[in-house]
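Morning F.,

Quick status update on the modeling queue. The single chain you submitted on Monday has been processed. Sequence for confirmation:
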Amino acid sequence: MVLSEKIRVHPRPIAVIRLNGMNSSASTSPQVVVEKVFKEFRLGDKAIVALKDINLSVMKGEFVAILGPSGCGKSTLLNAIAGFSMPTSGRIIANGAPVVSPGPDRGMVFQEYALFPWMTVADNIAFGLEIKGTAKQEIRDKVDGLLGKLQLLDFRDRFPKDLSGGMKQRVAIARVLALDPPIMLMDEPFGALDALTRRNMQDELLRIWTEYKKTVIFVTHGIEESIYLADRVVVMTYRPGTIKKNVPVELPRPRDISSIPFIALQKELTALVMEEQRRCHDEELHAGECS
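C-alpha cells below.
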C-alpha cells in the first residue's frame, strides 16, 4: 500500500512570516557567480550550443528560480553549478572557490527522487553522513531531527515503494539537508507531483528555506511556481540558452496567487516564456524536441 500525504493543505505558507526579500542572513557578496559560461555538446559532426554567455550572480540566502521552455539549458546550467558537467568555457564560483567537480557545499534535489529502494527512509537520509564518516550518534540525532521537521517520523522504517511522490521528495530533501550544504540546487523537484501535493511541497520548501537559511537555485517550467517561491526569476531563451531577463519578485510573503500584482507578474513572465516557446516550435517542431 502506498502511503499518501497527511499534511493539511494551507492556502499560504503560514510558516513563512518574512516580508519579501532574501533571508536575513543574506550578505553583499554573491555566493554563486557564473561568468561568461558557454556549454557545447557534440552530436556526431554537429555542435549544439546549449548555453551562451551566461552571467549570473546569486546572493547568499537568495531564492532564485530559473524559468524557460524545454531546450533552453536550465538543467544544463544547474548541472554546471553542481559540478556534474563542466562548461566548455567560462567559470563558475561557489562559496568563493572555482567549481571543478561536485562538492558537499552544493546539494542537489532531482525530480526523480533518486532514493535507494533497498534502504528505509531513515537509512536513505543517513546515507551521505555515513559516507562522510560522521559519528553514529550524530547521524542518529540528525536523522531524528530531520524526520521530525519534515513530518516523516511515522515512516522512518518504511521503504520508498511504500511512499507517495510527495513523501519521497521529502526524504530526498531531508537527505540533502542532513549534509547541511549552504547551497541547494533543485531540478524541477515537484514536476511529477499532483497539484495539491505540489503546493504542499512548495510551502514546505519555503519553511525549510526560511528556517535553514539556504541559498536555493530552483529550475522550473512553472510560471506560477516561480513567482510563488522565488525572490527573483531568471528567464532563459530557447537554444542557445542565454539570460533573457532577470525579473525581481517584489511581492510580500506569504504570497497570494489570486492578487492583482501576482497575476500581473504572471502575465509578464508568460509573455516572455511564450515568445521563446514559439521560437522553439518554429525551429524544431518537426524534430519533436518541444514540449
